[in-house]
Specification:
The longest helix has 21 residues. The radius of gyration is 14 Å and the shape is elongated. By secondary structure, it is an alpha+beta fold. The chain contains two helices and five strands, in the order ββββααβ. A five-stranded mixed β-sheet has the order 1-2-5-3-4, covered by helices on one side.
């Protein structure tokens, strides 16, 4: 997949996840949550628990950082999730 430049793309590396088996990339979407995922080389076009697990962790971290910058900010997880495009290969 081609993205113009690398702006907005984050490759996730986590010591808690076997990175030889899990690959996660996060990018900005155009205002709705999108995901592309594979489990054991099988396309999971509707996502699933593996996508939810990764997405929830990412959203929690983003929310935490946003609220740390602005104590008065009250952002809901769905507001963050709606702007993410998650790619998972597990």
């Amino acid at each position: 997949m081609y993205f113009p430049g690398d702006e907005g793309i984050v490759k996730i590396r986590d010591n808690d996840v076997d990175t030889d088996r899990w690959q996660v990339v996060v990018s900005l979407s155009d205002g709705e949550f999108k995901q592309v995922s594979f489990v054991n080389s099988i396309c999971t076009s509707k996502g699933g628990t593996h996508v939810n697990m990764i997405t929830d962790q990412i959203v929690d971290k983003i929310k935490e950082k946003l609220e740390k910058k602005d104590k008065n900010l009250n952002v809901k997880p769905f507001q963050i999730k709606g702007h993410l495009w998650i790619f998972v290969n597990a």
